[in-house]
Amino acid sequence: MTDTKSASGQPVVHTAARPGLTLAAVAVVQFMVSVDLSVVNLGLPRIAAGLGFGMIGLTWVIHAYALTFGGLLLLGGKIADRYGHKRVLLLGLAVFGLASLAGGFAQEPGHLVAGRALQGIGAAALSPAALALLTVTFPSGKARVRAYGIWSAVNAAGGALGVLIGGVLTEYAGWRWVMFVSVPMAAVALALAWRGVASAPPTAPGGRPDVPGAVLATAGMSLLVFGVVRTDQYAWTSPVTLATLAIAVALLAAFVHVERTTGRDPLIRLGLLANRSVAGANSYNLLLGAAMASSFYFASLYLQQVLHASPTVAGIELLPFAIGVIAGAAVAVKLGYRLPLRTMLVIGGLVTATGFAWFGLISADGSFLADVLGPSLVTSVGFGLCLGPVVSAATVGVAPSETGTASGLLASSRQIGASLGLAALGTAAHARTGETTTLEGLTEGYALGMTLAAALLVGAVLIAFTVLPRTNAASPAEHGSRDLVPEPE
């Protein structure tokens, strides 16, 4: 039973009748979203051949999803708070499933790009709503630690398995199945959410909607992601990239100004960022997202271009990464009963940084067993230790009326971190490799990218140590309280 406040400010008691089904629904949702971020990558060549994409147009199969997902996350979180988490989750799942089905039946490039864009819109609605439901259903105690451990395990497992699923489906069933595969997952999540998630009144106040803030935030976030992902075609110093990023920064600055002065119900209350746990967790998450995206990218390229593994074999060889994350998440559950969130994030960050530093020692004449297996296990265990605690930290002390907003902010920081990190580290790796395509040159570039990812994790550890309060994950503050539970002496 959870006490919240309705839009009128009166206390409302609603019961999560089936918390197990709620957790299952959220897990399926997160797995589906994570899979969809990587499942199309290995199918791109056959998608291009099947629909007649040009090399430039083909990149929009990736960009269309990243832009709508990353650009609409803040708005999606606010809508979930305003209109009800379950309602928005169900709507997002329906949009996502129908978009996946439509994309699978695409007959020309524009159809598939539109389907991917609609998938991103659905994901931007359902992802914050699902995480907010997890926060409300498991507000404290050991159940909260366990729930976030399961969430973090399926999150990373979906990312790792997405590459394998995409490779196998493309090779044996056809590229259309990299879109169709999301349809049954959306249907299962929809059924679980319909039966297992309790209906509750919206928790956000019902004031005038912040339309200017929504427009500015969505446009600024979309342009920021767009400018970053297009650095594969336009260099960081090109007029196109600089102008795009400058406009994005100006829009986001205008958004902050509007949020500070608006008399409407703001898209995001800036005071939320005064919560050290929220600010620190999102800063940590930004760097963690950058490193995670880079790890899959460089490891996959090293396996295929240097060790000459086929797409399917490369996907199989990335499975230990998923296993390591699950193991790390299980350890995080055990330690989370006793250690503060800050301590968990420091330990997880240091373990992950160690794995990336080990990855930085890869060689051109290496092998999977000698150069990939060991560092991938260390890195993935570290990720597993981080993922649950960072989500928990980002929602500690957050009022029920802002859980969707806080969840959207966290997902947004991960998405922006992934886009920025992959673009920046990819640029650095390409600069180290140069114009040569020798195995030695490629390996040096990938090794540099992994080493820089280790540096990002060291920065994340410093943020955790200096910004995050000393809170206990097993007994977080009640929702709506601004005081955090101190670490026991």
Automatic annotation (TrEMBL):
Keywords, A to Z?
A: Cell membrane, Membrane, Transmembrane, Transmembrane helix, Transport
Where does the sequence pass through the membrane?
Answer: 21-44, 50-76, 88-106, 118-136, 148-169, 175-198, 210-229, 235-258, 279-298, 318-337, 344-364, 446-468
* Protein's cellular compartments: Cell membrane
Predominant localisation class: membrane
A Pfam family the protein falls into:
MFS_1
Gene3D superfamilies in the cross-refs: MFS general substrate transporter like domains, Multidrug resistance protein D
From which residue to which does any coiled coil extend?
A: none
Give the membrane topology. Answer: Multi-pass membrane protein
* Keyword Transport (UniProt): yes
Q: List the InterPro entries hit by this protein, alphabetically.
A: MFS (IPR011701), MFS_dom (IPR020846), MFS_trans_sf (IPR036259)
Which residue ranges does the record assign to the Major facilitator superfamily (MFS) profile domain? 22-472
| CDD domains, A to Z | MFS_MMR_MDR_like
> Which top-rank group of organisms is this from?
Bacteria
| Signal peptide (from-to) | none
List the protein's name: MFS transporter
Q: Which organism is the protein's source? A: Microbispora siamensis
